[in-house]
Fold this sequence. Notes:
By secondary structure, this protein is of the alpha+beta class. 28% of the residues lie in helices and 31% in strands. The chain is built from eight helices and 20 strands. The strands form five sheets. An eight-stranded antiparallel sheet has the order 3-4-8-9-12-17-18-19. α3 (91-106) runs parallel beside α7 (285-298). The longest helix has 18 residues, at 174-191. Mean pLDDT is 88; it is low at 1-5 and 14-20.
Amino acid sequence: MKQAMLAGLIALMVGAGAAAAATTWETGGKTMGTWYQVKVAYTPDQALDGLKNEIEQGLAQDNTLLSTWRPDSTLSRFNGYAGTQAQPIPEGMALVIRTALQVAEKTQGAMDITVGPLVNLWGFGPGGVPTHTPDAAAIAAARQQVGWRHLHLSERDGKAWLQKDLPSLYVDLSTVGEGYAADRLAALMARHGITNYLVSVGGAVVTRGKSASGQPWKVAIQQPTDKQTRIEAIVDLQGHGISTAGSYRNYYQRDGRRLSHIIDPASGQPISHHLVSATVIANTALQADAWDTGLMVLGPERAKALALREGLAVYLIIASDNGFISWQSPAFARYLVGATAH
């Protein structure tokens, strides 16, 4: 069995048997500050000429739309606008923001795409790690610039409009951009009539059909350790999207604390509970990508309660004094095909 690393997930490729009628075509590279991967199980009558170029063009378009690192992106131009009048935005950007705001409502603001000032304050933005832990005054000042309820999405005249009632509001879509890009890759496959594929961008994955071996694509959830090949559970997505968020990779140590890149908007500080990984399977990778971050902020007990209330397919990994404890929602069970006993 071969495996390919994703962020928090592992794509498992069972070796093709002698009777397999398909071959695997694959490509990958860097995008959005992470890695993408595309695998297609194809037969000799399928023409894939030019597919790699279309993939890269599509990902470049996504980056031009959603990047906060590019000053010329659509999102950066909106962030740079210091007014409160509604601005027209492309439908793709509207879809991402609409999904994020819906999850923000469900999570009572745990998922907040305006949390950027706090992320930057704690050293997980372009400015790098601060020399000192932010004090209460700095945190309070940053929190005054944060709040998803200051962002308003509307539609009129067949167009999407985005408005901020706080001129300095800064929108960061990095928590959901990977899911959006993965869904766009899946849509590209569909336009080409490709029905057997696995696509991933960072920690977001979408699969359809079967691998070249004739078996369903399988994706493994990694154990939250520095050993990236440790497998926690294996799932068959059955045509859905999956995304994992975790606090165990992007962090630094300061003043005896392990500071995660996942910031709780309510406290203005990095999360400090024992939930270290949240995986969500949903109809789209974008939806899964929005939910996993919100669940990570909520922590284990509130995340469990929300998953049950909303009927979400969720797999949580929680740190304890005796190692890791896993929890899965009833809706997740239908996708599970293998698990590691603790």
